[in-house]
Design brief:
Layout lengths: L4 H10 L7 E6 L9 H6 L8 E6 L5 H16 L6 E5 L3 H10 L2 E4 L8 H8 L4 E4 L5 H4 L5 E2 L4 H13 L1 H5 L1
Parallel strand pairs: 1-2, 1-4, 2-3, 4-5, 5-6
Helix pairs in contact: 1-4
Length: about 170
Amino acid sequence: LQNTKHDISQIRTEYDISRNTKIIITAGIIKPGKNIEILIKTLPLIGNNNINLLIVGDCFNKIDFQYRDYLKSLAKAKEVHGQIIFTGWLEKEKLWKILKVSDLFILPSLSEGMPNVLLEALGLDLPCFGSNIPGIRDILFYEDLMFHPKDEETLARRIDRFFTDDKYCQK
């Protein structure tokens, strides 16, 4: 799946993301076990505020909807709500286009079985970070690509380094 310049421009326009803004993406059902709050808590700790976080996915029950509301209020409290985009559920082809436009995929889950979305992101050559837990660890292997699911400071350092250290990106 190749993204044309038109696809890239169209996606950035649709989500109001400027050309120079870096895109971090996570995807899945929005529920507490996905630990999306660590991404929101990490944003203000990163040395670059020219980053958007795309949260792709939807809720399926009352607890999930409450969790999404919590994420939105956390984003406001951390003053990063302008950097966060909740896309809702997307068809596979649209998700793949957005993955291809993104700079970094992060799966911060507290537990996972076989995380298909991580495999899809890797299959599209998108750099990935994930929680150092079974399931994700089995796919990413390298310590530098993983973080403790409650350690936003380490995650912030890794993201900052990813966007500033060319040698780190090529590992």
